[in-house]
User: Fold this.
Amino acid sequence: MDLKEAASGGESSRLMLALKTVFNKTSPYDILVFDEIDTGISGSIAFKAAKKMLSIAENSMVILISHLPQVVAACQSTYLVYKNEEEGITQSHIRPLSEEEKIEEIGKMVSGKKLTQGGIDAAKELISQYQK
Assistant:
């Protein structure tokens, strides 16, 4: 049986992150792009994955696409990617977020579409866990 058939999405993501972490220590990449490498993980494993990505970012530029609040909270620069449709044409956009907007977006990830005070508090707590 092939590894891709035996391993879950989360297991494959963690294996790829582990390999990239080891390879980056021996021969740093200029830039690494992780497109939802955190798929299939959550909770404390998401924190560990975020810390691994932070360690990679010490030697290489990391661009990360994620939907996990634990991972987004670790990012130094945060951007919002969004789409809109006009006259049957879908356009993608990206814009940098201020620190306050970052808190709001992470808060929405935690609390759902309607931002709540609990979501904001959770976002601030997540961000504080990565500050040195």
Observations:
- Residues 84 and 90 are 6 Å apart (CA to CA).
- The first helix runs from residue 3 to 6.
